[in-house]
Amino acid sequence: MSTNVEQIKERLNIVDVISSYLKIEKAGINYKARCPFHNEKTPSFFISPQRQSFYCFGCGEKGDIFSFVEKFENVDFKEAMKILAERAGIELKGFRKEENKDEKEELLKVMEVATKFYEEALVENKNALQYLKNRGLLPDSISKWRIGFAKEGWRNLYDFLTEKGFSQKTMLEAGLLKKTEGKMGSEDERYYDTFRNRIMFPIFDNNGKVIAFSGRAMREDEKNPKYLNSPETKLFYKSETLYGFHIAKNYIRKNDYTVLVEGQMDLLMSHQVGTLNTVASSGTALTELHLKKLQKLSNRIIIAYDSDEAGESAARRAAELALSLGMEVKTTFLPKNEDPDSIIRKNPSEWKEILKNSEYFLDALLSKALQKYKDRALTKEITNNILPLVSLIKNEIEKSHFIKKIALKMRVTEDTILKQLEKIKTDTARVNSNEENQNQKDQKEELLFEIERYGLKIDVEQENAEILKRDEIKELKKKHQEIAITLDDKDITQEDRKNLENDLKNIEKRLKEINN
Ligand SMILES: [Zn+2]
Fold it and tell me: Residue 492 sits in which domain range?
């Protein structure tokens, strides 16, 4: 009887598994892709169908389907096994569930039941349906995004879920229920629904399971904020969740860029007109985690935030984060006080045009500064607001492109700009970590192919050691020769000669060691 791992490995091909996460291309008998575990422009991530393994020449990450899923999905081995087992259609044997997994599953279950409850309520509510229709949403979108309605009343959902056998604890932990602090009424009466008289937009996890809600008030007043989001729960982490990601992820990979919008309505409308690689930060501040998630799929992003002041400053923050991760950042030009939602509602083709005309974020910033400022004010603007962003650019070619451009516009030399940039403190901690000697990289690549060609079963790690050995031998021989030449010199002092001869002996000794 084969183990779970063996069974999964028999059924799944690493090429299929990885290609569902990354855009891959054929490279001889292997496949290659841009590495999802480090930043790179040219692919150095290789997948070998023969060995059913992957190896990155850039960062050294390597392994099989399990380690890939573990690393990519950021889960532990057990979780990776579960994901792959599901994919392979295998029932896991002797797989003991963890306590907290049961709890999570119960939370997912209650969210699913609540989603259905809200969906059914929407069908009966003409006002809410009319509202969505006025906003331009088509019935298809409503069902695709599972939009629902939470009726007026304090305990509609509570009663329903209780009847379905869910505990108060589960409902509270899922963020669907609240409890008053006061002592009024019976214990039972102190619980009430979190969402009341709101249109309910489910928020999904990466796999399309509902983990939270965003409720839009039908009636706005001081007591009822326009949007009310679920609290953070064991399912819902705001800093990791992007609205629409579960659908957009495949299209981001395919189109090789993300469209980032602010609001839920922006996202829904964008998807409705076929821009399926759109995600929304949706009410929460964009974090590095959000961007890293997107970067795994594509290094390119178009920020399409509202064209008001708040939107512009949020876009700048997003751009800063993305640039510092080494992403290629573009931005759209929306007419004043418009957002993607309002533009699409008026004219879907304008949205596509706007995306097509998006510009590099820094170019956009520069042309805006040039329009708005002159002379010293312009210098100040560039120094304070644009150069700090330039300093974040990781790609040297891109960076020098902007330096040239700015120098030209400011009518100063590139040197002046470079000096300014030097003044700006940058985080250089990560800069060198991934850089590897290109020559050595090529050698390694060559070797791997050699191995493949002759069908040899050789451990890549061992091969790396082999390469290092070769390099050392080369280095030692070079030194040996140099010393030998120096020793030929008649003018050399007795003491120097002794030292050099000693060095020579050591080199010979080391060479012998290596060759054994
Ligand atoms: Zn890598």
Answer: 459-515
Whole-number pLDDT of residue 129: 96
Q: In this structure, is residue 453 part of a structural domain?
A: no
Q: How far is the CA of 39 from the centre of ligand 1 (A)?
A: 7
Q: Give the whole-angstrom CA distance, residue 495 versus residue 444.
A: 42
Return residues with CB closer than 5 A to ligand 1 (ion). 35, 37-38, 56, 58-59
pLDDT at position 427 is 41
pLDDT at residue 193 in the model: 95
Q: Does residue 220 sit in the same domain as residue 252?
A: no
pTM of the model: 0.67
Q: In the 8-state DSSP scheme, what is residue 188? A: G
- Cα of 384 vs centre of ligand 1, distance in Å, is 35
**Confidence grade of residue 95 (pLDDT, cut at 50, 70, 90):** low
| Gap from CA of 43 to ligand 1 centroid (Å) | 9
CATH of the domain at 208: 3.90.980.10
Split into its structural domains, the chain has a count of: 5
Domain-located, residue 502 = yes
- Residue 178 inside a domain? The answer is yes
Task: Please provide the DSSP assignment of 79-96 as one string.
Answer: HHHHHHHHHHT-PPSS-P
103 and 183 belong to one structural domain: yes
Measured in Å, residue 257 CA sits from the centre of ligand 1 at: 20
Mean pLDDT of the chain: 85
Cα(434) to centroid(ligand 1), Å? 8
- Work out the burial of residue 504: count CB atoms within 10 Å of its CB; fewer than 13 is exposed, 13-18 middle, 19 or more buried: middle
Spacing, Cα 296 to ligand 1 middle (Å): 11
DSSP H helices, 94-149, are 99-124, 126-134, 139-144
3-state per-residue secondary structure call for 441-490: HHHHHHHHHHHHHCCCCCCHHHHHHHHHHHHHHHHHHHHHHHHHHHHCCC
- pLDDT single digits (tens) 140-194: 999 999 999 999 999 999 999 999 999 999 999 999 999 887 666 666 678 899 9
Cβ(187)–Cβ(168) below 8 Å: no
CB atoms within 10 A of CB 348: 17
Residue 297: the pLDDT is 87
For the stretch 295-325, pLDDT in tens is 988 899 999 998 888 888 899 999 999 998 9
